[in-house]
């Protein structure tokens, strides 16, 4: 009965980092420094494309002109701008299970969705090839190659090259190119295994790249970024201005100070250690409490994909579970007998207790 005993609720559903993983004191000092140095600018309206010094810094990472970098109020905000500008009445080809919030953005923009399955080796490239050959040309192909949300799986290098070949190289003769969008929100959280090349690098900068400091510094800062063709960056900047005039420049200036003073690398090392410890605690708890189930073993990111053979409905399991929350597979367009478990928010001891409470609900 220990798994069903009363106690504080434990979240295995959260999308963000736990408070103990956030560099609170350093960020407070960075914000103070940014305000003292540049307060007249960052507390006023400014460029719809974002804080110029941070755009310039990110551009140097990707060896592109700063005009190709768009800063947004979180990555999903930028995804919404892209969807509203380019996707109404058109189709998006996306991995399934799909990141549920991205799915909502696409549907709200009036796009239709074409699914290609994602497996333990990432997007199934044979299905991608078949789908591109059979259906109308999608306006966008959306891929999360590193530590996929919700499954935690990573696309290996050879599959990445195949995706770029199918979506970009083989379609260069077409008048209107298919956009390939790489969502690399979790890429810098890798704590195990070998780093894989970004689709952006494989494509020679011809694909679109997006990421967010929500997953690596703090979600409340709301700083996402995109690397885009210059004409598309201009279009989305114009839409951003008409939507909210200026993104949150204080958050962007705080991130810039955090990066420029060299704090990011040390923080990432601590973050990766913390995520690895949490991941290991969750996998050990699953092995103990769900011996007949199977699950992914992510090398970074936030999520484990738990599959429950013989249990028809994860939604019913979550209704029965006491003092713990998680996300069932149907939320991501997948089978109901799967659960997405987040190990990024709760501390290791709570992860053990949360998995035990789920098992007690069986």
3D architecture notes:
- This protein has about 350 residues and is of the alpha/beta class.
- The protein folds into two domains: about 1-15 and about 265-360, Aspartate Aminotransferase, domain 1; about 40-260, Aspartate Aminotransferase, domain 2 (3-Layer(aba) Sandwich), CATH 3.40.640.
- About 40% of the residues lie in helices and about 15% in strands.
- It has helices at about 25-40, 50-60, 75-85, 100-110, 125-135, 155-165, 200, 230-245, 250-260, 265-290, 315-320, 350-360; strands at about 10, 70, 90-95, 110-120, 120-125, 140-145, 180-185, 210, 225, 295, 305, 325, 325-330, 340.
- The chain has an eight-stranded mixed β-sheet with strand order 2-9-8-7-6-3-4-5, sandwiched between helices. Strands 10-11-14-13 form a four-stranded antiparallel β-sheet, covered by helices on one side. It has a two-stranded parallel sheet with strand order 1-12.
- The longest helix has 27 residues, at about 265-290.
- Mean pLDDT is about 95; it is low at about 1-5.
